[in-house]
């Protein structure tokens, strides 16, 4: 069905259309997505895998973190050869750029399961790539917090699809 040169044999029936519309409606309803409140701080969870990067933009709602937006993409060519710390940092840089309309000018928290990134702003960087990304992130006000992998499920899943 997705091979080059192979005809698409997917038959879109009325029941398939109903299922698709039902799923689309469910994915945009509470609590799947929360409307952003620009007066409240955001939390950005990011993760990287060997194949892709993912991010979830969250906001607190009565003590519970609810998603505002999801994003993911596959790693491109040379990005697959990056070191783990570089892939994780790429996920942060890409996610901040993706959600900049929400994050620019506000203070926010980045949650990652890759602890070495906590020192991105404080340490002397030896990688020129990490140095460039650190400079790119300077206009943003954020704090990086390490979380356990089991608490980073959304971004982890998105980085693998």
From TrEMBL:
Gene3D superfamilies: 3.10.20.370
Keywords: Endonuclease, Hydrolase, Nuclease, Nucleotidyltransferase, RNA-directed DNA polymerase, Transferase
Domain Reverse transcriptase RNase H-like: 38-140
InterPro entries in the cross-refs: DNA/RNA_pol_sf, RT_RNaseH
Protein name (database record): Reverse transcriptase RNase H-like domain-containing protein
Organismal lineage: Eukaryota, Metazoa, Spiralia, Lophotrochozoa, Mollusca
CDD domains: RNase_HI_RT_Ty3 (cd09274)
GO molecular function term, any single one: hydrolase activity
Organism for this UniProt entry: Pinctada imbricata (Atlantic pearl-oyster)
């Amino acid at each position: 069905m997705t091979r080059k040169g192979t005809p698409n044999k997917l038959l879109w029936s009325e029941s398939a259309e109903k299922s698709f519309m039902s799923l689309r409606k469910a994915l945009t309803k509470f609590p799947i997505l929360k409307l952003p409140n620009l007066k409240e701080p955001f939390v950005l969870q990011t993760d990287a895998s060997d194949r892709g990067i993912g991010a979830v933009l969250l906001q607190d709602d009565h003590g519970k973190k609810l998603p505002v937006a999801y994003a993911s993409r596959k790693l491109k060519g040379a990005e697959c050869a990056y070191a783990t710390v570089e892939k994780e940092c790429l996920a942060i840089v890409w996610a901040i750029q993706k959600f900049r309309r929400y994050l620019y000018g506000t203070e926010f928290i980045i949650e990652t399961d890759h602890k070495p990134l906590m020192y991105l702003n404080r340490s002397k960087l030896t990688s020129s790539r990490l140095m460039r990304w650190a400079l790119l992130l300077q206009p943003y006000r954020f704090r990086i917090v390490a979380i356990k992998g089991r608490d980073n499920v959304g971004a982890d899943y998105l980085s693998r699809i």
